[in-house]
Amino acid sequence: MPHPLTASALPLPLVRRGKVREVYEVDNATLLLVASDRVSAFDVVLPNPIPRKGAVLTQISAYWFRELAAVVPSHFLTADADEIVARVPRLADHRADLVGRAMLCRRTTPLPIEWVIRGYLSGSAWAEYRQHGTLAGEPLPTGLVESAKLDPPVFSPATKADVGHDENITFARTRELVGADVADRLRAASLAVYAAGRDRAAERGLIIADTKFEFGRAADDALLLIDEVLTPDSSRFWPADRYAPGRGQPSFDKQPLRDYLAGLKASGQWDGNDPGPDLPPEVVHATSDRYVDAYRRITGRELSA
Known about the structure:
Phosphorylase Kinase, domain 1, 2 domains, 5-stranded antiparallel sheet
């Protein structure tokens, strides 16, 4: 198994360091995103990295950016390490840290909204529905069960939080935050991207239960799909042959990690706050395997990085 990358340190100005990614400035028009193998759960970054996780997130995003280019424009330029080095020669000595996990992108100003599309009633959407009979503040039909299919899919936006949980908001509030025209356009774009991704995933026996997108405004005022797209960190993927409404579904994400941490919380061995607990090797390996399996199922290829 490749040696995991906890954090990159490249000879470029660091714009920001997130829970998973470092963002570097290449020039006024271009950014370099590097996905580390850090992993977070319950809003806490854990001390143990997950090998190959950064490569999975980057390469799945690159796959979707290419596949969906005709549906919506994006910030994606390349995720090929040799192409990146050719464009940014300063990185020649750091190629090993770029392979698989680095993406060169157009620079944008991100909009302060998570553009969430839900095709099935799960997670926080199921919790809201059970309590209020609504989703994103809007009423849903009565009598729905957990994991029920939502037809048509529902747009349920949220504000982005640097610390803690994102906050679900109404579409009316979204229009206030970014303007009615932008909100309307990006809701339509989000639904179109979800529909296209859903149909492609279905061909591989996968259900995309829900997902979140981010958009940014480029220097020429273009609205572009940014960050990551239709990955296990931004979406719920379920195996179609095991789907059964009325219960939770198995998913291709960091569920082994969540299950382990939930057990620690239930037993009082962890209070859910920083610092997170050390992860046993079997949990690290199981989580890594789940990410790699997601890449294989989504793209139909083996992960080379």
